[in-house]
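Workshop exercise sheet. Pairs work together: one partner reads the sequence aloud, the other fills in the structure field after running the prediction. Swap roles for the next sheet.
Pair: D.N. / O.F.
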Amino acid sequence: MAAQKGLLGVDIGSSNMKVIYLDGSSGQVLASASKELVTHYPRANWSEQDPEDWVDALQSCVRDIFDRQGHDRAHLAAVCITAATHTAVLLDRDWNILRPAILWTDRRSAQECDDLNAAHGEDIFRIAFHKPSPTWTMPQLLWVRKHEPEVFERTEYILFAKDFLRYKLTGKWETDVIDAQGALLLDYQTLQWSGALCGYIGLDPRKLPPIRDTLEVSGPITAKGAELFNLPAGVPVVMGGSDTALEDYGSGAIAPGQGIFKIATAGNANIMVSEPHRHPALFNYKQVIPGLWYIAAGTLSGAQVHKWLRDQFFPDLTAGDDKHNAFMTIDRLAADIPPGSDGLLFHPYLMGEKTPYMDPFLRGDYLGITIRHTRAHCVRALYEGISFSLLDCMNVYKPMGLEFTDFRLIGGGAKSALWRQILCDIVGKEILVPENTEAAFGAALVAGVGAGVFPDAAAAVEQCVRVSSRHEPDLHRHERYQKLFTLYLESQKRLTEINHKLHAFETGAY
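Structure field:
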C-alpha cells in the first residue's frame, strides 16, 4: 500500500529512536523502524548521549523505511520530531556541539538544585510552576557553569533534543512552547523566557531559541538537510513537542478529564485540563490541542524496575538473546498467583520517588515475605506495587477537584494483559488501550496537522486513533486491592524514617 500523504513521526527515546511512517489519507501505519541509542554513564549518577548519534539513527531509520521496506519518498508530505524534554544541546558560535547532552535521568545537579531552592525556590516555583530537581535544564546548566565554565562561556546557542535534529533538517534555531516549559526557564504567565530565572544561573536569555507553537511549520527541509538524511527537499517540518505531550495526544486524550496511565521506563498518571494547576508534586505542560494542558504525576517506577526483576530474579531466562520471551515467561508465572500475592507487598522505590513524596531517599522493598513465597509471587507483587504507585499518583488530583472521565494505558507495561487487568482492578475503572501508543505516532499526527493534511488536531485523532482493547474492573478484586492499598500507604509512611537512615548508613553519615 502506497501512502498518498506520507507522514514521518520521529521519537528520540531514552534507549532507541523510533520512526513511524503514517498514511495521512487512511490513518494506517505503513512502516516503522528503530535504532538503538547509546547512553553513556561516565560517572555515577551521570547519563549522557551524543547528539550526533541522533543524526546517525535518523539516517538509519530513513534508509530502513524508504530503501529496505520500499516506500516512495515522493509521497512524503510532512515530518515531525519529538523527544523527552529537559535535554539541552549546547552549541558554539559556529554551531558545533560543545559537550554531550545531559539526559533527564541524570542526577549530577542535585547540589545545584539544593542551592537554587535555598536561594530562589519560592520565586522559581511562582514563575515556572515547578521546583528545581536534577531532571530540569536549569540546574543542569548551572552545573555546567560551575564545573565546565569554559563550555558555559563558549555556548552561543541552546537547543533541545528534538530541536537539534530539526535544525539539521531545516537550519532553523527555535523551540516549541512545551519544550520551553521543560527548561524551567520559562515564565508560565507570559510563556516567554524569564530574565529573572535565567539570571539565577547567569545565563544570557538571548542564547535560548525563539519560541513557537507546537503545530506550526518550522520550515521546509533544506537542500543540506535533504542531502544529510536522503529526504526530499521542500517537505515541511512541523515544530512538535515533548514525547509525553505527543503520546497523550496520539493516544486520544484530547479533552479535559481524560487521563493517561503510562508504564514505560518510568510511570505517569496524567490528566487533561483546561488550565494549569500549580502543585509541588505535579508537572504542568501545554497539550497539542489549543487551550488544553496536561498535568503529570510522575513515579520513577516503571519498566526499568520490571527489567531489574527480570535480570536479577530470572538469570536462567536471560542467558540468551531473546529477552522479550523472558518477559512473556515471567508474565505467565505471575498469572498463576492470586490477587494480593498471598500477602506479599512491594514498594517500587528502587530509585527514590517523585509524586507524591518527592523523596530521593525512599527505598524499595518486598514486605511480608514468607517461606511459601516464590519468584512468581515477586513478579505479581511487582505488577501490583507499581500499579499502587500509579494510584498513589492519581489520588493527588482528588483534593484539587480534578476528576477523570476515562483512562488510557500506554507504554511497555501495556503489552501485558495481566498487568493491564491488575491496574484496572486496582483503580476500579475501565481502562482503554489504544492501538498505537508511541510518541512517534503522535508526532506523525502533529506533522499532518501542521502541514494541513488534517483540518485540525482533533480531526486527526478522530480519523487515526483507534482503541484495540478495553478492560473492565472486577469489583470483588477491587475491594480486596483497596484493603491492600491501605497497607501499602501505611507501611510506606512507617518505613520512610528507616529508608532515610539506610541512606545515611550507606553514605557513612549514620
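Discussion prompt: The chain has two domains: 6-243, 252-435+474-510. What would you look at next?
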